[in-house]
Design brief:
Helix content: under 10%
Radius of gyration: 23 Å
Structural class: mainly beta
CATH topology of the largest domain: Immunoglobulin-like
Number of strands: 35
CATH class of the largest domain: Mainly Beta
Bound molecules: 2-acetamido-2-deoxy-beta-D-glucopyranose
Mean pLDDT: 92
Largest sheet: 7 strands, mixed
Strand content: 35-45%
CATH architecture of the largest domain: Sandwich
């Protein structure tokens, strides 16, 4: 937290125009390569300010976050803030469809407000396959003082970033995908950058006997669902991707790629050390990492007997069904209008997202409804904003209700669907494959109303949870199953809908939704920031400011 300066209302001189501005958090981040050996083999990773994982951002609802990112890699780089909604401001979302990448040796300042959000999130690179070798870190949003939180203040608040891990270099991993091969099985699992197999491993966390701690667990990995558990301790689930949930108690949690959970753990067992365990699910060989939690004042080592992981994905589906939104907890909510009554809003559009034949021209690609996305030299949002989208891409090339054309190869093209501002839309993710998928939408939370085996039909709507489904931003889909989410598209901008599994995202399983306000008003969307880089077709052009008024 060294570089963090909190400027709360020093701007009194401007008080005439700027009243009660929300506090600012300033960060300067240097992105570099670095070498670590978490699995015993020295390898190149991406560090931020010399740290792997990168620094934690610790903010409170409505804070303004300013991160000046210096790219000292030899490749273009971008970061996205998974789950941060950037209301009216897709300019800060950090995807190749919304901004020009930060060139090597250059810097870009992200400037966004965590408006009306609380919870546990993380950031990660969206360029190339950088995420596989690091550049990720935790991002938490605390409730503002005075806003009641549905549990007592924990003694401390810990971030636990878990993920599968490869020992191959970035060039090797990218080379595999570029030549149409998969990355294969990961080589291990890391917890906060460590495997637990290091010769001298110090405790990752400490707990004082009798006290309760919050652990925020996120799966920052590449492709593998992980089961997380702590020897001898149960976890009380309190929050998930920005929503307070009904506080059930779990022995272990399946954390799919891209997801975050916050749990409370009380140090009420025999004072000694305990292992936390993150182990792979649905892989032939189970890989795991351990991290030590030490009770303060005790030197007794943790037992080598690790708690077992659950077996099969039906267990995970049942666990999903126990997740409920806490309807009575007061908390910041980005879109409170109607959010309690989502079950009564009329669905205006149903979009079914289906995998299709992954091969294009003999090479492995992944697709959505027959289209395998490719990034354009001119970011999609810039082409649209400058008024000539047709020079960069074509809208709406996929169908909402695709036939499952398994035999037909996918088309390579930028994939952008227009969605009418403020409409209430249902998205069905249908998985016809034998692996678990994980889907994420930027700019929004959605109500995760159902996951079921089989194929989706309109009759399945009677099985939806229309009362207290959790509002979140990432959802898994089990093999040969479907998942349904619902949301109001009330956040104007260009937003990435993507597989959280890096090899699939990189090979085209992503798309953008363009949500435009017909009003062209600053009330609905911000103009491009003055400091934004321009590239591709818009390089050197004067910046238009089409949105006016407030
Ligand atoms: C995070 O922010 C909260 C609220 O401002 C503060 O109480 C807490 O000490 C901070 N934690 C860390 C680790 O900086
Ligand atoms: C780059 O960093 C400098 C400070 O070192 C800052 O003044 C400038 O605004 C930054 N540029 C961008 C595009 O963020
Ligand atoms: C939901 O939040 C309320 C209000 O903060 C709290 O009193 C209650 O215990 C929570 N309910 C559950 C089931 O977790």
């Amino acid at each position: 937290m060294g570089r963090l300066i909190l400027v709360s209302l020093i701007c009194c001189f401007l008080a005439v125009v700027v009243t009660a501005e929300d506090p600012y958090l300033f960060y300067t981040w240097k992105v570099t390569y670095g070498t670590i050996a978490p699995l015993g083999v020295p390898q190149q990773v991406i560090m931020i300010n010399g740290q792997f994982p990168g620094p934690n951002i610790n903010s409170s609802s409505n804070n303004n976050i300013v991160v000046n990112v210096f790219n000292n890699l030899n490749e273009p780089f971008l970061l996205t803030w998974n789950g941060i909604q950037h209301r009216k401001n897709s300019w800060q979302d950090g995807t190749p469809g919304t901004q020009c990448p930060i060139a090597p040796g250059k810097n870009f300042t992200y400037h966004f407000q965590v408006k009306d959000q609380i919870g546990s999130f993380f950031y990660y690179p969206t360029t190339s396959v950088h995420r596989v070798i690091g550049g990720f870190g935790g991002l938490r949003i605390n409730s503002r003082l005075l806003i009641p939180v549905p549990y007592a203040d924990p003694e401390d608040d810990y971030t636990v970033l878990i993920g599968d891990w490869f020992t191959k270099s970035h060039a090797q991993l990218k080379g595999l995908l570029d030549s149409g091969k998969l990355l294969g099985n990961p080589d291990g699992v890391l917890i906060n950058g460590k495997s637990g197999k290091e010769r001298k491993s110090r405790p990752l966390f400490t707990m004082k006997p009798g006290k309760t701690y919050k652990y925020r667990i996120c799966n920052v990995g590449t492709k593998t669902t992980l089961n997380f558990r702590i020897q001898g301790h149960q976890m009380k689930l309190v929050e998930m991707e920005g929503s307070h949930v009904v506080q059930n108690v779990y022995d272990s949690l399946d954390v799919h790629v891209g997801q975050c959970f916050a749990v409370l753990v009380t140090a009420n067992k025999k004072p000694m050390n305990y292992y936390m365990v993150a182990s792979t699910r649905y892989t032939k060989k189970v890989l795991s990492a351990t991290g030590t939690i030490a009770y303060v004042g005790s030197k007794i080592p943790a037992s080598p007997i690790l708690p077992p992981a659950p077996v099969g994905w039906a267990w995970s589906l049942n666990q999903f069904r126990t997740f409920r939104w806490n309807l009575t907890a007061s908390a910041a909510r980005p879109n409170p209008q109607g959010s309690y009554h989502y079950g009564q809003i009329e669905i205006t559009r149903t979009i079914k997202i289906v995998n299709s034949n992954p091969v294009v021209g003999g090479k492995l690609r992944y697709a959505i409804n027959g289209v395998s996305h490719v990034d354009t030299p001119t970011p999609l949002k810039l082409a649209e904003y400058f008024g000539f989208p047709e020079k960069a891409f074509q809208y709406n090339i996929i169908k909402d209700n695709p036939e499952v054309a398994a035999a037909k190869p996918a088309t390579l093209a930028p994939n952008v669907a227009q969605i009418t501002f403020r409409t209430f839309v249902e998205i069905i993710f249908e998985n016809h494959e034998s692996t678990v998928q994980s889907w994420h939408l930027d700019g929004y939370s959605f109500f995760a109303v159902a996951i079921e085996p089989g194929k989706w039909t309109p009759e399945k709507r009677k099985n939806y949870n229309l009362l207290d489904a959790v509002s979140r931003h990432t959802i898994q889909v089990f093999p040969n199953s479907w998942a349904a989410v619902m949301l109001t598209f009330d956040n104007a901008g260009m937003w990435n809908l993507r597989s959280e599994l890096t090899e699939r995202r990189y090979l085209g399983q992503q798309m953008y939704v363009s949500v435009l306000s017909p009003e062209k008003s600053l009330r609905d969307e911000y103009n491009i920031p003055d400091f934004a880089e321009l590239c591709g077709l818009v390089a050197g052009l004067p910046k238009p400011h089409p949105y006016a008024g407030a």
